[in-house]
Amino acid sequence: MERSVNVLAFGLPGTGKTHALCAVGYRLVEVGRSVLFIPAYQLVQDLLAAKRNLELPKALRKLDNFDFLIIDDLGYLPQGTEESEVLFYPDSGAL
Q: What is the DSSP string of 52-82?
């Protein structure tokens, strides 16, 4: 956390990536860190709804309240422009 780096888990479906990241998130909570574990599709849908409601900056600020974001199945997102814009919002920093 002190270095603000992204950690990526790659592998074939069914190899335990989600399970391993859940374990990491659980341990972080045990030591007092705030963690949001969310499937990528759900995060994108939430951000698209916030954008439609003109509340995208507010939604992104809410994500800043967590010490760690664990975004599951990022590779399965549709490759649309609108989805990319909300997930990699220029003013949000690195999600």
A: HTT-HHHHHHHHTTSSEEEEETGGGS---HH
CA angle 82, 39, 44 (to 5 degrees): 15
Largest distance between two CA atoms of the chain:
39
Identify the CA nearest to 20 among candidates 28, 32, 4, 42: 28
Question: Tokens in use for 93?
Answer: 């920093």
d(CA 71, CA 77): 11
What amino acid occupies position 56?
L
CA-based nearest residue to 93, from 44, 55, 60: 60
| Residue 53 CB-density burial (10 A; 0-12 exposed, 13-18 middle, 19+ buried) | exposed
Pick from 36, 43, 32: which is nearest to 73 by CA?
A: 43
pLDDT above 50: residue 49: yes
Instruction: Summarize the confidence of residues 33-39 as an average pLDDT.
Output: 95
